[in-house]
Every structure is written in C-alpha cells, then in structure tokens.
Design goal:
The protein is α/β, with parallel strands linked by helices. The protein contains ten helices and six strands; from the N terminus they run H-E-H-H-H-H-H-H-E-E-H-E-E-H-E-H. The relative contact order is 0.11.
C-alpha cells in the first residue's frame, strides 16, 4: 500500500511538472479573458508571438487584427491593466510556467486571411473537419455572412446565408469545390 502511495505521489509530481510547459495560446485562453475563446487565443498568440507583447498592446494594435473588434480589444486591454491579473501572471511565471511561442511561418498559406461561412449540410466531411481544413491553409471560418466573408460553402438545405451571399455577390461554393480549393 505504501508503495502505491509513493507511485501516486510521483505521478502527481510529474503531472504538475509537465503542466508547467504549455503553448502560449493555451495560457492566454486559460487566463479567462472576457470574449477570448480558444480560436482567438490562437490568433493572438500567432500575432504577438509572446505574452509581453500582448500584455502591452494598445486597443488600436488589437483592433488592427482582423478578428478583433472594439469590444474584444477593450476587454483584453482592461484585463491586462488589472494589477491583480498581472500579479497572477507573474506568480505563474515565477512558479516555473514556461510558454512555448507559436512557430514562425516562413511562407504565406494559400488562403491566408480568407473567410468562409458554411450553410446547409456537409456530406463529405463534418463541420469541424471543414473548419480545420480552412485553418490549415490560412483561412478562418465565421458563423454569419458579412462584408468580411470571402466564400460561402453551401450544401443541401442552405437557406438565408446563401441568399445573403447571393445578394452581396459573395462566391458560393459547393462542398466539392471547397474541398478541391483547400486540398490543392
């Protein structure tokens, strides 16, 4: 029994040590900044590359990022302006937390900055698979058609999103056309 307790304690110690090494975006997400989800945490990490740059970013610098609007920018700046939040971050880093910066990209991706909206059913892949495909080639996905939408992928049962895209002159792709585009 004592040997099991020793092993459990050792496993717990190892798990704590391993948890000290994390990706920058996971740490940003874990801070619980209002309006910052996993995807935006990844965008912020890729844009700034390190925590210090993000912590000192102005509202204007944040709003210059395609996916950050005034409300999100204000909540990020307010979060890092809080002395108690800064103290928590300092204690984490002093406790041995090490942040892995995102890899720097040497080349632009084929659909860098392009925005996709999906409507209707997808038959050859799931929505989450389609989203991952878009992100892999540098694009992003959105839930609504807007002036920033570059493509709408319309499957069977497409409704108002397709109509809105037609009204705005946004290219509408079939699922097959979309798959050919992202798998080039």
């Amino acid at each position: 029994m004592a040997r099991m307790a020793e092993k459990s304690a050792e496993n717990l110690k190892d798990a704590i040590e391993n948890a000290k090494y994390t990706a920058l975006w996971r740490f940003i997400y874990g801070l619980g900044i209002r309006n910052v989800g996993e995807h935006l945490a990844q965008v912020l990490a890729a844009h700034f590359g390190n925590l210090d740059s993000l912590m000192t970013a102005s509202i204007d610098e944040l709003e210059a990022i395609d996916e950050v609007g005034p409300i999100v920018a204000a909540s990020i700046v307010a979060f890092f302006a809080s002395e108690s939040n800064r103290m928590i971050i300092e204690r984490c880093l002093a406790g041995g937390v090490e942040l892995e910066s995102p890899p720097t990209r040497q080349q632009t991706l084929p659909l860098e900055g392009k925005s996709f909206v999906f409507t209707g059913s997808l038959e050859q892949c799931t929505r989450s698979e389609a989203k991952a495909m878009v992100e892999r080639v540098g694009g992003r996905t959105a839930g609504l058609v807007s002036g920033k939408t570059d493509y709408v992928v319309a499957g069977p049962g497409a409704g108002s999103k397709r109509e809105k895209a037609e009204q705005r002159g946004i290219p509408i792709l079939t699922e097959t056309e979309f798959l050919n585009m992202v798998n080039r």
